[in-house]
Amino acid sequence: MAITTEQIKELREATGAGILECRSALEEANGDYEKAVDILRERGLAKAAKRSDREAGDGLIELYSHGDGRVGVMVEVNCETDFVSRSDAFRNLAHEIALQIAAGAPQWVKTEDVPEAAIDREKEVARNRAKEEGKPEASFDKIVEGRIEKYLDEVVLLRQAYIRDEKRNMNDLISEAVGSIGENIVVRRFSRWELGEHIEK
């Protein structure tokens, strides 16, 4: 049975599991939604959604320097308890997030953080480019929508493709960690500096 994108999306939103895990569960369940949820629960991957509303007040600040000090990252990653914040699994996750920020240079943590002005600017650029390329006017809205999605995938940390496995995004990576570690995990904020990036020429 062919699994649709809509089925994967619905299961993902309900469980918080990654795209590949949702597809695998749906295939194993022959498209049966309830059975797929049970499969993800058995694998420990559906716990993320239940934990996402729990308070994450502990955690750590990870510092990372890349390229002989040419790029520096500071990121705050929160969890629920001091016990988890000291665990190797959590510290490794925080390090991977810092590494991603250094390599991917995101501007915001999540989609909701992106200012409306930035979205409007990208829409205008996409529309003007479509005009210049001689695209039919009827297709402008679809072109703009596609460009905005691509833009968000580039600038939002949780939407970026994971540098070690581009089939997963950072939200998938964190959701999987929530499932295995057993606590809610939140990337609170980050800063990224690159040598000379603000020096006026």
Strand tally is: 5
Sequence of secondary-structure elements:
HHHHEEHHHHEEHE
Q: Average pLDDT value?
A: 87
Uncertain regions spanning at least 5 consecutive residues = none
What does the largest sheet look like?
Answer: 3 strands, antiparallel
Strand content: 15-25%
Examine the secondary-structure arrangement and name the CATH architecture of the largest domain.
2-Layer Sandwich
State the fourth-level CATH superfamily of the largest domain.
Elongation factor Ts, dimerisation domain
Percent range of helical residues = 40-55%
Task: Note the overall shape.
Answer: flat
- What separation lies between the terminal Cα atoms? 59 Å
What number of domains?
3
Describe this structure in words.
Helix content is 51%, strand content 17%. 29% of the residues are buried. Helix 6 runs antiparallel to helix 9 (170-181). The termini are far apart. The model has no long low-confidence stretch (mean pLDDT 87). Strand 3 (161-162) and strand 4 (165-169) form a beta hairpin. The strands form 2 sheets. The protein has a 3-stranded antiparallel β-sheet with strand order 1-2-5. Strands 3-4 form a two-stranded antiparallel ribbon. It folds into 3 domains: 5-51, Orthogonal Bundle (Helicase, Ruva Protein, domain 3); 58-110 and 156-194, Tetrahydropterin Synthase, Chain A; 115-153, Orthogonal Bundle (GTP Cyclohydrolase I, Chain A, domain 1), CATH 1.10.286. The protein is an alpha+beta fold.
